[in-house]
C-alpha cells in the first residue's frame, strides 16, 4: 500500500487505538506505551490505556481509560509497565473474549496494540480471528446495535514483543532483553571482585526456561569458563570435561565463572541446576564454590538506552501499521532486524517460536563464534590508537584468544603508533587478557582514534587490521604505492564513542557512552521535576557527529537536540523557546535540551544557555551541564562487550583467510582494494567493505559520513516532544516473511 500522499496528522482522525501490556513485564514496555500514545494522538486518533492486560480488556470499566499527552510523561526511565500486566484465564475462554469485544465496541476501538510475549500475541491473533463471530454473538444477545457492529466490523491488531528472554522469532532483540543483560552484567561484575579475592568458583543462574540467549551473551560478556543453555545439552561425559576445564583454568586464574540458564538440561532430558553443578565441582575438585540465582532482579531496574529507543521506534511503527492496515492485512508484529524496523506476520512468528527450543537470530550468530578451527602459524601484534572507548578491550581479548586458538603467536604493542615506533612490543598470552571484557578504556594504551591489529611475520613484514579511524586506514592504503611493506591485508573496525565512522551504522563504545548520557539525563530530569519550571541544557561529545545527542534525546525524552547534520537558525532556537514556554503551562513543567559539542561554532552552549535564560525569564530558569570525558569512561555495556567480541573474532578470521589468498611464492603481497576493508554493521549484517570504496561516502573535513541512518529518527524525537512536524511515512516497514534458519552449533558449548 502506498502511503506517500497521506498526511500523517490526519491518518487517525475518527479512529481509536487501545494499548495494553500482557504477560511478564519487561523494561522498555513503558517507552513503547509512551510512543504509541503520543504518535496515536499526533495522527488525530483517540488513544486508550487498557490497564492490567487482557484482564482489564475483559473487565472493562475504569480499566479502559483515555490516554493524554501528559499521562505518559516521565515514563521512559521507569522499569516494568505502569499500566499493569496480568495473567488472564478469562480471556482464554470464548466468554471472556466476548466481554472484551463488547467493551471495545462500546468505545469504538477497532485498533489494538498488544505488547507482550508469544502467548500474549497468540491470544491477540485468536481474538482478531474470532472478531466477526463475536460481534454476531453480541448482536444476537442484543448487547450491541447493528450500527455499532457495522462501525466495528473489523479489528486491527499489531504486536510488539516484550520479553527479557529474546525468545521470539523474527526479531534480533525483544523489548527488555538489553536491560536484563545490564542487570545481569552488573551482578556479574560485582561478584567477580569478591570471587577473585577468595579464589572462588561462582555459578550464576539466569532466566531462560526455553531460550539460552541471556546465558550465552552473559558468558561472552564476562568471559565465563562454561555455559549451559537449553538449546544445546552438553555431550555425554560433560561432568569430567567441565572439571578438567576448571582445573586447567584455575592454574593461571583466581576466578572460575559458570553461567547456567534456568532451563538447562542434559541429553536425557534431566534438568541441570546450579546446585547440581556446585555439588559436582566441590566433590570432584574441592573448589570453594558459590551459587547465585538472579531471579526477578533481571526484570527490574531502569531500561537501558537501547530498550528505550527500541520501544519508541516500535511504538511509532505499530501505530503506522495499525492505521495503514486493511481487512486483508494479516495481524503483524513490528520488530527489529539489524537497525531496521520490519513488520512480520504474527502467526508465522509464533509458529516458528512454538518449537521446543527457541533461539533468536542473534544467538545463532553468537554460537558460530565458538566454532573455531586451527590454522597456520602467524605472528600477530595488536595495538590501540586514539581516544579510548569502552569495548576496545573486549575486541582485543577476542582477537588475542581467537588468534591463539588458530595457532598464531600474539604480540601486544603498547601506546599505539608511538609504541610501535619505539619497539614497545611484547608477547601477550591467553591469561594476559583475562578479565579484559569488562574493563573500560584501553589496557594497551592508545594515542589516536582507532584500534589497530597488526599482523607481523617473523621478519616483521606486516599485515594490518585496523580498528577505529577510517582516515588512518585510508592513509596506510594510499602509502602502499610508496612502501611495499604496507601491501598487506588490513581491516578497520570502528571504535569511537562518536559513532562517526563511514561504512558502519554502529561503533564500539557508542552504546556505553549513550547509556552514560541517558542515565545522567534521568537524574537531571528528576531534579527538574522537583524544582519545576526548569530547563536543562546539556552538551554531549561526538565531534561533528550528532548521533549521541540525537539518540540520547530519544532515550531521555528531550525537547530538542542540536546537531551539526541538522542545520538550525536563530528562528529555530526561538521556536524551541516558545515551545518550552507553552509546555510550562501544562502539568509537565520541565525541559531538556541537548547540544552536540560542534553543532554550530556561533550558537555555543553558553550562547544557547544565555538565550534560553533571557527569553524564558519569568517563566522558567535554566541550568547547563557539560558532560565531558565521563562519556568515554565506565565499564562497557553488554552490547559493547559483545559487539567488540564479535568484531575482533570476525576480523581475525577474515585476515587469516585473506592471508591464504595473498600468499605467493613464500611471501605476502596484498595491494587490491578488497585486501584493505572496513568491518561494519550495515542495516542487517556485518560486512567487509573496501576502504577505497568509502571515500565518496565521507566528509573528510568534519570526519563524519555524508549520510547517516539515525537522522531518520529525529522526526520521531520531535513528535514525541509534541512538535507538530511532518513525519515521512514513505519509508516505513513493509510486511516481510519469517525466514527459518538451520542452526548448527559446535559441541561442547563452552567459553
Automatic annotation (TrEMBL):
Keywords: Acetylation, Allosteric enzyme, ATP-binding, Cytoplasm, Glycolysis, Glycoprotein, Hydroxylation, Kinase, Magnesium, Membrane, Metal-binding, Nucleotide-binding, Phosphoprotein, Transferase, Transmembrane, Transmembrane helix. InterPro entries: 6-Pfructokinase_euk, ATP_PFK, Phosphofructokinase_CS, Phosphofructokinase_dom, PKF_sf. It comes from the Eukaryota. The chain crosses the membrane at residues 449-471. PROSITE patterns: PHOSPHOFRUCTOKINASE (PS00433). The keyword Transport does not apply. One of its GO terms (molecular function) is AMP binding. It is an enzyme of class 2 (transferase). It catalyses: beta-D-fructose 6-phosphate + ATP = beta-D-fructose 1,6-bisphosphate + ADP + H(+). Pathway: Carbohydrate degradation; glycolysis; D-glyceraldehyde 3-phosphate and glycerone phosphate from D-glucose: step 3/4. It holds the Pfam family PFK. Its cofactor is Mg(2+). Its EC number is 2.7.1.11. Residues 17-321, 379-654 form the Phosphofructokinase domain. Belongs to the phosphofructokinase type A (PFKA) family. ATP-dependent PFK group I subfamily. Eukaryotic two domain clade "E" sub-subfamily. This is 6-phosphofructokinase. It comes from Esox lucius. The lineage of its organism: Eukaryota, Metazoa, Chordata, Craniata, Vertebrata.
